[in-house]
């Protein structure tokens, strides 16, 4: 079963960036979600939203 949220460590690995940069990406995405009225978790971001915004809709592990 796939977890609903991704952590900074996972974001860093998926995007090939440092964990510091990954935290910045998560902050930006969570700010967008918060503006839409969603509750967010610091240091984690919704997997579906992350994939839509950062992987152009592709799923993690999907051939592109």
List the helices and strands and how they pair.
Elements: E1 5-7, H1 8-15, H2 19-35, E2 44-46, H3 47-54
Antiparallel strand pairs: 1-2
Helix pairs in contact: 1-2
Give a brief rundown of this model:
The chain is mainly α. It has three helices and two strands.
Largest sheet: 2 strands, antiparallel
3D shape:
globular
Order of helices and strands: EHHEH
What is the number of domains? Answer: 1
State the secondary-structure class: mainly alpha
Mean pLDDT figure: 92
Q: State the end-to-end CA separation.
A: 22 Å
Rg calculated over all Cα atoms? 11 Å
The main sheet orders its strands as 1-2
Uncertain parts? none
Counted beta strands: 2
Instruction: Name the helicity range.
Output: 40-55%
**What is the strand content?**
5-15%
SS field, number of helical segments? 3
Please provide a written account of the structure.
The protein is mainly α and 64 residues long. The chain has one domain. Helix content is 52%, strand content 9%. The chain contains 3 helices and 2 strands. The protein has a two-stranded antiparallel sheet. The longest helix has 17 residues, at 19-35. The protein is globular. The two termini are 22 Å apart.
What descriptive keywords fit this protein?
2 strands; single chain; 52% helix; 3 helices; mainly alpha
